[in-house]
Amino acid sequence: MASIRISLTFLCLCILPANLAAQISNGDTTLALCNLGSFRFGESAGSDCWGYTAPDGTNYAIMGVEDGVVFVNVTTMTVVDTVFGPGPCGYTWRDMATMGDYCYCVSECAGFNDGLMTIDLSFLPDSVSLLNTQSLNPPEWGFQQMWSHNLSLDTVAGFLYAEGWGGEGWTNTNVFVFDLADPANPTWVGGFGSLGSDIHDMYALNDTVYVAEGGNRSFSIWDLTNKFAPQLLTRWSPPNPGYAHNIWPSEDRRYVVTAEETPGRTVKIWNRENLANIQLTGEYLGPSGVAHNVQVLNDTIYISHYESGLRVVDMTDASNPVEVGAFDTHPNENAIFEGAWGAYPYAPDGLVYVSNLEGHLYILQKNLVVADDFLAVDSVGVSQGSSVRVDIHATNSQPVRIFVIPFSWNGPTDVTLDSLSTQGLRTEYFEEFASVSIDPFGKRAAYKLVSSNSGTSPDLEPGSGPIMSLYFTVPPGAADGTVPITITPVNGVVTSYSDYCGVVILPDILSGSVTVCSACGSCCDQPGDADDNNATNIADVTFLINRIFAGGLVPACCQEADANADGNVNIADVTHLIARIFAGGPAPVCGPAGMGC
């Protein structure tokens, strides 16, 4: 039995569109595709790939290789099993799809295990089991049809469609149909087709079959409600057509996307709402100039684009498709048949599998990146001889694992940075809070905040709010002026957010400042409001007694807690508030600006 040579590579790396850092396309949104791991099965002969999610939630990638079909546990990044055969041969193309706990595979090879393969996946994660192989046509035809280039599963109606050749007397039968009522034993039902034997690929769902008619350079849509009397609904050809290679409808069935696998021929988006008048609405072509297969998820097209790798195109505006992401699987950009062969974008958790003709399988993670991510610093006022807290706020559009924040402060010589904190902020439970670079004499520093890989301090979910506080001391007698707090590179460290795949976002930056002046720094909006609830009442008396006699919380604004305005927060303020509340005494007033307590 032939063996499969396997090499594995695990990366924490992201390949992004070249203009991501400075210019994000399509409404300021792009899709980052991160390589969680890759495999190589031999030196060549990779073909299509598919996916399967087990009942326990484990994801598996499936790929055709030179010697058979491999099954990869995506969670553990290990090759679980291989179903060998048919081949190896000169035609290494294999196609596969899953329904329930079964995988169905076809190949253009002959020999050991050729024909339609039915593979039981219910023994995973331990192994898979080849249940049977069978001819694609019935015995009464007088010959065994064992090869097929492509198949498609109608997972709604429960039927399998496989491309083939009807043979003499059956020249208009080039799609074979199997009933999957017993999924372990596909039952031949019939066949259909037209235009000779040159049907190349199809997509089937809910008894509607979309067909790419290969060298006939046309596409068609069929109604297979009655498997014994298929109805052609429409047929059309592109302008200046290439080889009609692949077809996939949008999820709302308003559009159909096609690929022609011919140099210079675009991926095309067709409006199919009027079947009597299919209209071309949009086109796209990647750098290599030849696309292989297209698949659609929501309003997004995933294209295995040969030497251009995986290309992801947003078709929200079908008349103006826009590339929003890419992952290159080949070093060149030529219009030849090398590089990305297949893609599977339907796995849960944002995973995409991509296969290469050169034997590679890539496990990618999708991450939506939005350009409105930013970092902002408070602008506050403070009086001489007092302390001030300055919050740094983050807006992140995707979960963030790591923040790197370099900053400088440039005020009077003796203005000092006392401490930093995440206590009570969005990143309070981050696992790590450490200096990357610090220069107190140059008044600059860079800090890193990191969540936990184990999940005990999870990634910061998308949102806005403070993530870190800076505490400064302004000495008595400091001259009026500003102490600007600037987010700026420090010793080569730049501001960034990173997610768990290593996607680095360079956020917009809004710098703040600390203004030092003799008359500013007041926080007093509600005199006597010791508990900072925007009211002055008996609760403030309780708050102050707890603070003075039991070491309770420090008032958020000492000026407000200093009800008698003597510059101290003590029992005299409690007496002042009681007299006011119960005896109509004098109203509380604000304490001195910038005072502490």
- CATH architecture classification name of the largest domain: 7 Propeller
Strand content: 35-45%
Count of runs of 4 or more consecutive helical residues: 4
Separation, N- and C-terminal Cα atoms: 82 Å
Instruction: Describe the largest sheet.
Output: 8 strands, mixed
Name the shape in a single word: elongated
What's the CATH C level of the largest domain? Mainly Beta
Uncertain ranges: 1-27
Annotated CATH topology of the largest domain: Methylamine Dehydrogenase, Chain H
Query: What is the structural class?
Result: mainly beta
| Mean of pLDDT | 87
Describe what you observe in this structure.
This protein is mainly beta and 597 residues long. It contains 4 helices and 43 strands. The chain has 3 domains: 6-370, Methylamine Dehydrogenase, Chain H (7 Propeller), CATH 2.130.10; 374-516, Immunoglobulin-like, CATH 2.60.40; 523-597, Type 1 dockerin domain (Orthogonal Bundle), CATH 1.10.1330.10. Strands 32, 34, 36, 37, 39, 40, 41 and 43 form an 8-stranded mixed beta sheet that branches. Helix 2 (538-550) runs antiparallel to helix 4. The N and C termini lie far apart (82 Å).
Keywords:
single chain, 597 residues, mainly beta, Methylamine Dehydrogenase, Chain H, Immunoglobulin-like, Type 1 dockerin domain, 3 domains, 8-stranded mixed sheet, 6-stranded antiparallel sheet, 42% strand, elongated, disordered N terminus
